[in-house]
Amino acid sequence: MDAPYARAAAKVAQDATVLASKNVASVTRGSGTTAAGVYCVKVSDPNVVEDLADAAIVATLNNFRGEITAIGAPHAYCGRATDAITVVTSNSSGEPADRPFTVAVL
Predict the structure, then answer these.
(1) Are 85 and 105 in contact (CB under 8 A)?
(2) What is the rounded distance in angstroms from the CA atom of residue 32 to the CA atom of residue 35?
(3) So what's the pLDDT on residue 15?
């Protein structure tokens, strides 16, 4: 992935397949919920993980209208893992929906 100014980044398909990444070990579906659109982006660089909860994290949907939230602090949907970004996507009506997205830690 060409992301020279991002410390970690991933382009992810709606089924959680990683299409491209930098310092990201994996993307899985969230646990602790039955809702669609919950993803866990596991960051692999320990230097990024160290301050993930306080980092600037940006996320955007790819080629879909809707909403996206990226949570850098430990969250129940990702087992309260300190090395994971919890990403939640929804459709334009605010209903949980699987959506492709890009997320980056600056």
Answers:
(1) yes
(2) 9
(3) 96
Instruction: Determine the Cα–Cα distance for residues 8 and 74; give it in Å rounded to an integer.
Output: 17
SS3 at position 28: strand
Domain span holding position 66: 8-105
The secondary element (H helix, E strand) that includes residue 87 is strand 84-90
List the one residue out of 27, 20, 22, 32 whose CA is nearest residue 70.
27
Task: Find the length of the chain.
Answer: 106
| This model's pTM is above 0.90 | yes
Q: What is the pLDDT of residues 67-80, one digit of tens each?
A: 999 999 999 999 99
- Any domain includes 1: no
